[in-house]
Amino acid sequence: MNKIVVAGSGTFGTAVAERLSWNENSEVYIHSIEEEVIRDINENHQNSKYFPAKFLNTKITATADDGVFEDADAIMLVIPSKAIVPFSEKIKAHTKKNPLIINLAKGMSDTGAFITEDIPFERTASMKGPTFAIETINGYPTSFTFGGRKKDFEYFKKTFLPNTGFTLDYSSDVRAVELLSILKNMYAIAIGVVSGKYGSPNVDFLVYTKAVNEMRLLLRLYGCDENAIYRYCGIGDLGLTALNDLSRNRTLGMLIGKGFALDEKNNATTIEGQRTIKLIGEKTRAEHVEKNFPLIQGLYTLLYEDGKLNDYLLKALE
Q1: What is the torsional sign of CA 202, 256, 248, 171?
Q2: Quick check: 234 pLDDT over 60?
Q3: Can you give the pTM of this predicted structure?
Q4: Are 60 and 27 in contact (CB under 8 A)?
Q5: 190 lies in the same domain as 165
Q6: How confident is the model at residue 264 (pLDDT cuts 50, 70, 90)?
Q7: Of 172, 203, 225, which one is at a domain's C-terminal end?
Q8: Nearest-angstrom CA–CA distance, 261 and 279
Q9: In this structure, are 185 and 266 located in the same domain?
Q10: Whole domain around residue 278: which residue ranges?
Q11: Based on the structure, what is the number of domains in the chain?
Q12: Domain identity same for 101 and 183
């Protein structure tokens, strides 16, 4: 049996663990800090907090014990991006093998660096793609881009993916995969704003096209492979997140477009795109290329400089 640990018992962590458990040769664990969730999974084979009335594979075991990482062959990080680096540093002391560490979170570390570059492991990879948790747990065909070493891609695909219904494409540029997954949240907000204002597919795809071009330019700015935008992690993930109302980032944009004020201090929901707007907005200004990124600058002004909605719309639609 091959042991895989999913760190994170939220919606997506639970969904990924369920699908991985369909491989009869895998031993699947969920690591969680939520005692009630752990008890529910182990005793009732459910995660009622996130998926009411949904039963999980009885093979899945949940635990809060960091010792579960000791003999793991692979560890999948499915916790908020800002928590991944300190979490990885904590569990590093417990790993005795040389596990494959796969980041599924979509965001940057607090330093503004790529997560896979900040975590203290040798074998790191990133898996990103157009994946909603509810469809993943219900068994729909689900795709990711695997970014990392080719031998790790082949090992993971051969060892853990049989019978799971997961499909992978591949990029050797892990930074490109990470960056695209970060950017799509920000541009989902950008498109959501005009969707909330106009409710027009014409306008949505006008801004969508601009977003794809800005993402390509940002890949170039970061020295990444521009062709990665054609992978599942690129236009696939952007399309899912920016044009579907299950997306929290799109929903935030739509609320802004409809005139609702953003109360960042009292918002308990993690919206990764908000953090990205600030980081990328400041980077493009520091690089003196802000004129090439009207969507980013419009969002930055709107959210962080008390800008007006109409001013953003003028930038987005010009």
Answers
A1: positive
A2: yes
A3: 0.92
A4: no
A5: no
A6: low
A7: 172
A8: 21
A9: yes
A10: 175-317
A11: 2
A12: no
Q: Domain containing 17 — which CATH number?
A: 3.40.50.720
Whether residue 34 is found in the same domain as residue 83? yes
Place of tokens 């010792």: 67
Poorest-pLDDT segment among 26-30, 96-100, 103-107, 201-205: 103-107
Tokens of 272: 């990764």
Q: Please report the pLDDT score of residue 261 as a whole number.
A: 80
Query: Cβ contacts of residue 219 below 8 Å, gap of 6+?
Result: 176, 179, 180, 225, 226, 228, 229
Based on the fold, state whether residues 62 and 77 are members of the same structural domain. Answer: yes
Q: What is the CATH number of the domain that holds 273?
A: 1.10.1040.10
Q: Looking at 143, 172, 201, which one is the last position of a domain?
A: 172
Q: What is the pLDDT of residues 128-146, one digit of tens each?
A: 999 999 999 999 999 999 9
- DSSP of the chain: -EEEEEE--SHHHHHHHHHHTTSTTEEEEEE-S-HHHHHHHHHHSB-TTTSTT-B--TT-EEE--GGGGTT-SEEEE-S-HHHHHHHHHHHHTT--S--EEEE---S--TTSS-HHHHSS-SSEEEEE-S--HHHHHTT--EEEEEES-HHHHHHHHHHH-TTS-EEEEEES-HHHHHHHHHHHHHHHHHHHHHHHHH--HHHHHHHHHHHHHHHHHHHHHTT--GGGGGSIIIIIHHHHHHH-TT-HHHHHHHHHHTTPPP-STT--S--HHHHHHHHHHHHHHHTT-GGG-HHHHHHHHHHHS---HHHHHHHHH-
Residues 6+ apart with CB under 8 A from 113: none
